[in-house]
Amino acid sequence: MATICMVTPGKNKDTRVTESRKLLWELGKVIDIKSISPKVKLFTIETKKPHRIEPGQHFDIKLTSDSGYVAQRSYSVISDSNYTNQFEFGISKITDGEVSKYLHEKLSISQNLLIRGPIGKYFNLNKTTESVILIAGGIGITPFIFYLRQKNYKNKISLIYSAKNQEEFLFKKELENKNKLYKNFSLIVTLTKENKETWKGLDSRINSKILKKTIKNHLGIKTTYFVCGGSNFVENISSKLIRVGIEYQDIKIERFGP
Fold first, then answer.
1. Beta-strand (E) ranges in 15-111?
2. Are residues 247 and 135 located together in one domain of the fold?
3. Are 45 and 114 in contact (CB under 8 A)?
4. Could you report the per-residue pLDDT of 105-144, keeping only the tens digit for each?
5. CB 60 within 8 A of CB 52
6. Pairing between strand 4-5 and 251-257?
7. Which of 14, 33, 58, 104 could bridge 93 with an S-S bond, Cβ 3.0-4.6 Å?
8. 3-state secondary structure of 82
9. Domain check: are 21 and 85 in the same one?
10. Are residues 98 and 212 in the same domain?
């Protein structure tokens, strides 16, 4: 994601809902920081009170400098539970990202941050049909990890995931294990910049051929499509889905940017 959520039409609606219920900032304590790739770290933040959260929701994190300058960004939440006071965020370090750069370079365990959430109804992954096709680019995988951890896999789920290389193939072991364990889960991975000697799988960007093959496996089932990644990725995939015959109302998108 570049892990900073940009505003979508759905998010605009959520913002008005958030303001009407006066969602307040609260202190969150950093209890764990873990590097999972050269550019991505997992930050676990604990609040005093638990929150009920749904896969696809996000939290705002706010930083304030000594001079009074304020910056805030929104990050998709990962969790193992729908009701918890510990929230994990997968955050990619962006060269010009003032918040992500601070979190990666300056933030330490036991430090407090201002946090607000959960926010988000538009990209709620639990409000789905009989089957879902998830399509992620880079760190756009994060909201899907939370969703996949919650499922009993009675319904059909496919995940198409594009990353640069095996180092940036986030949650690799977890996803591959699910692919082996659950017959209703299909994992399709393409690594666009991996050495061909070390990667024998797909290496193109997600194209119409990949989409059509996956869609064919869901024929006859009411399917919702969730697309998450950078703005260009989301626009590209959404356009391809429409061109291969998917109705726009069946496509949910989440954009990320610096």
1. 26-35, 40-52, 58-64, 70-76, 83-92
2. yes
3. no
4. 999 999 999 999 999 888 877 766 679 999 999 999 999 9
5. no
6. antiparallel
7. 104
8. coil
9. yes
10. no
